[in-house]
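Our consortium's second objective concerns turning raw sequence data into structural hypotheses that experimental partners can test. To show how far this objective has progressed, the report includes one record in full. It was chosen at random from the queue rather than selected for favorable results. The single chain below, 263 residues long, was entered without modification.
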Amino acid sequence: MERYKEKDVLMELYNEHKNIRKIAEILEVNHKTISIWMKKHGIKTIGSQGARKNNLNHDFFESIDSEEKAYWLGFIMADGCVYKGSDESSLRLQINLKGSDVEHLEKFQNAIGSSYKIQTKMIKTSSVCILKVNSTKMCRDLIALNVVPRKSLVAEMPLIQEDLQKHYIRGYFDGDGCLDFVNKRIRARMVGTENMMSSIHEILKRNGICSSVYKPSTGKKVFSLEIAKKAEALSFSKWIYEESSTYLSRKKELYESSKGCPL
């Protein structure tokens, strides 16, 4: 079968490798043949001048078998997006964080072996850091783990092994949660879909942590999970952050500062 003639095959390989010679090597044809067929299909390339091959472990999310992978999966579920390209066959992962959290994006870069550039820009009066990763393979793996395009109203927790669930929840909490100090009280809170909040509620319950799930108020669409009692909020924070190796530094620092609070 002459796969080098198929537009979808060429586009997927080009989105992953950005290198015509590499595609030719994979498909076992001359690189000139690849160029000819890419032109026939109207597939645009970045050109030979200034071309840059980005490094990336495309298989990072193929199997969630470590704390690091579970954490980043949870964080992306909260704060990442998978986008379809204009041709519908290419996919891109994008994460936008506030500018002061750029170090966290750098941690993710290191985890996935990425050399993609982190962009920084001002949106209105706020500094934002943005990472865009072109990898159809990685995005398809994420979709299989419920990180689907336009996920905000349909997000569900994926099936992952029990000993990794707290790392996933820590990632999700770092992305869409907060630890508040209000009137000498400590409260942990996160937001999401009903399915996501209910799943996390059940996992916390199995681990001896009491929480409550609340329906959205009028005009809003997201549910919330709250741990309102000080002792429970401290237990939750200890459960997700103690002996962890991957976390958002400013949120773990909040936990560290809360440990001395009297119950």
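The partners drew two points from this record. The CA atoms of residues 46 and 100 lie 31 Å apart. Residues 48-52 have pLDDT under 50 and may be disordered. Both points have been shared with the crystallography group to help prioritize constructs.
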